[in-house]
Design goal:
The protein has about 140 residues and is an all-alpha fold. About 55% of the residues lie in helices and about 0% in strands. The radius of gyration is 30 Å and the shape is rod-shaped.
């Protein structure tokens, strides 16, 4: 029996055995399965022809999550609700008779404002409720 004691060959054989063992060993966690699937996809060239590959991602000032959401044209629900409330206030201000604003309309907007106040991520973003007297000042705050 011919024994070869070359350290390089022994290290290479050990690495090959470890790789074979990793491939044969079942994954015990879902994250391990996900990593395995991603690695397989990469080995098969799945990431080779992606659009914008090799081009930098524009990251504006502020946090990365906000920048990514902005690039994807995604707005959180509370931002969309804020715009809806501003449009509702504007609609009331555009009425022919500003003194005859229905109380039910103001109450409907106030319900949206309370919902908005529960949704915002920071208490400093919360806004006060409307009344028939403060519509102009409120619109300035919401716009």
């Amino acid at each position: 029996m011919d024994l070869n004691n070359d350290p390089k060959e022994m290290a290479s054989a050990a690495e090959e055995n470890q790789q074979n063992e990793k491939e044969r060993r079942p994954m015990s966690t879902s994250s391990g399965l996900l990593e395995s699937a991603i690695d397989k996809f990469a080995r098969e060239g799945g990431f080779d022809n992606l659009p914008f590959k090799g081009k930098p991602i524009k990251i504006e000032d502020g946090d990365v999550l906000t920048s990514i959401m902005k690039n994807a044209n995604y707005q959180p629900a509370w931002v969309e609700l804020r715009k809806e409330i501003a449009a509702d206030i504007k609609r009331l201000l555009d009425l022919q008779e500003p003194n005859a604003i229905p109380e039910s309309e103001v109450e409907t907007i106030n319900q949206k404002i309370m919902k908005y106040n529960r949704m915002v991520p920071n208490p400093q973003l919360q806004k006060g409720l409307l009344s028939g007297n403060n519509l102009h000042a409120a619109y300035d705050k919401w716009e």
